[in-house]
Amino acid sequence: MILFRKVLVANRGEIACRVLRTLRRLGIASVAVYHREDRNAPHVAMADEAIRLDGPVPSGAYLDRDQIIAACRSTGAKAIHPGYGFLSENAGFAEAVEAAGLAFIGPGADVIRLMGDKIRSREFAAGHGVPVAPSVTEDEAGEAFLARAVAIGFPLLIKASAGGGGKGMKIVRNTAELAENAALARSEASRYFGDPRIFAERLVEEPRHIEVQVMGDGNGNVVHFYERECSLQRRYQKIVEEAPAPNLPAALRDRICAAAVRLAAAANYRNAGTVEFILGADGEFYFLEMNTRLQVEHPVTEMVTGIDLVEEQIRIAAGQGLSFVQEQIRIAGSAIECRICAEEPDRDFRPATGRIALLDLPSGEGIRFDGGILAKQAVTPAFDSMLAKLIAHGPSRADAVKRLERALEQTAVLGVPTNLDYLLRIVRHPAFQTGRLHTGFLTLHAEDLSAPPADSPTSVAALIAAALGDKAFRDLAFGIPEPHATIGLWRN
Questions:
Q1: Residues 173, 39: one domain?
Q2: Contact present, 309 and 294 (Cβ < 8 Å)
Q3: How many CA atoms lie within 13 A of 338 on its CB side?
Q4: CB of 408 within 8 A of CB of 391?
């Protein structure tokens, strides 16, 4: 069986570029989609064809499944890769793609629905022997829910059933806070997700966030590609991830990976997915959720296993099944990823906008830069603030840390504020270098990670030096146009 002749990538930015690279390597023709604000974006230039999506709101255009399916029909593409975000976990879109006679490079709609509902997925996990934190689900009797929540014991974490990204999530430390926070969580759940259902679970203090990359063929056969550490988060959003997780005992790693495979196999999971867990200091771990798509942090897994996960996704969607048995998947070394965002860490991580005046990227052994940005490109509030990802791989974690630190030092993005300096302070922190990680890391070390007092003259000199080091900038600033350049030093 051959792979698809043409694939449409229903996304933008760095993930669209990343998928397009694999399509090009496999010799598969590619189609990009774009809103007019992205007409000069790198993913548009990389693809063999590009179809414009109309709509007054840029993000809305990428969510218009009818336009995307029409783009497939008009170009002859037979499969759609959704990337992450946008329509990647939309069960209705997956159904519409298959109803149109196209292949969705991802899991089936039923599994997307199951795992997208936090209450149903928790019940499913518990029913298949996957550890779940003590919890209660809200029913119509509000007072009974509060009483059962109190019986679990404090602290509690209230979550939205259809939630994500910290929306509808509240920490409760005593009975007096419970009713109010439950009402707030319910309100946020309804506002953000159109689903007011909430549940409460035992809060694990300062846990680690461990996730397992899995791949299934849809017939119950599942393999894992080991785990990733994703504990460094702000507002429940990951910013630094690595594989494998540091300081994780081998026996515990085996138990966590086995639980992830057990869950995915029970769901007859097809294609790539990630099972996420909370790990307590006592070594107990609990199911958190399953993301039914490729993760932002998938490059660290690719770096340590040497396996192109996007290629595997395409092969499975084309009906070729799994390329590996579990014994063939091995880890070599360590890899760490930093998310480079357009934001101002010293201003409570406020998203930033502007135009990229200079882009200087790192190079060297073990360095990978996944980006979808160019010099002179405008960064607008229309999309997420993440610009790119910087990944470093080394034979040991210490080597990966050193390479990442050096790569961050070499990276320059001028014209729009970024979190590059903040990331460098994280990587240099002693607790990070020794792998003492948990989800409260950034809060605990906030003072150490804060920006030093601004030295205006030095900052200005550094910016000037960086700009002068760029040939394109020098040519623009000091280049003498013809015919004046031929005249020489004489001026009229």
A1: no
A2: yes
A3: 27
A4: no
| Cβ-contact 272, 234 below 8 angstroms | no
Residues spanned by the domain of 330 = 208-449
Q: Is residue 22 part of a domain?
A: yes
Q: Is residue 474 part of a domain?
A: yes
Of 330, 326, 223, 318, the C-alpha closest to 23 is 318
Q: Give 100-154 as a 3 state SS string.
A: CCCEECCCCHHHHHHHHCHHHHHHHHHHCCCCCCCEEECCCCHHHHHHHHHHHCC
For residue 215, give both structure tokens: 């791949």
379-431 pLDDT, tens digit each? 999 999 999 999 999 999 999 999 999 999 999 999 999 999 999 999 999 99
Name the domain count of the chain.
4
Q: Domain check: are 445 and 467 in the same one? A: no
More confident residue, 483 or 465: 465
Q: Can you name the residues that pair with 8 across neighbouring β-strands? A: 31, 80
Q: Are 117 and 199 in contact (CB under 8 A)?
A: no
DSSP string, 264-318: HHHTT-EEEEEEEEEE-TTS-EEEEEEE-S--TTHHHHHHHH---HHHHHHHHHT
Phi, psi (rounded to 5 degrees) for 141: -85, 90
Q: In this predicted model, what pLDDT tens digit does every residue of 113-139 receive, in sequence order?
A: 999 998 999 999 999 999 999 999 887
The reported pTM is 0.89
Q: Does residue 221 lie in a domain region?
A: yes
Catalytic center residues = 293
Do 227 and 324 lie in one domain? The reply is yes
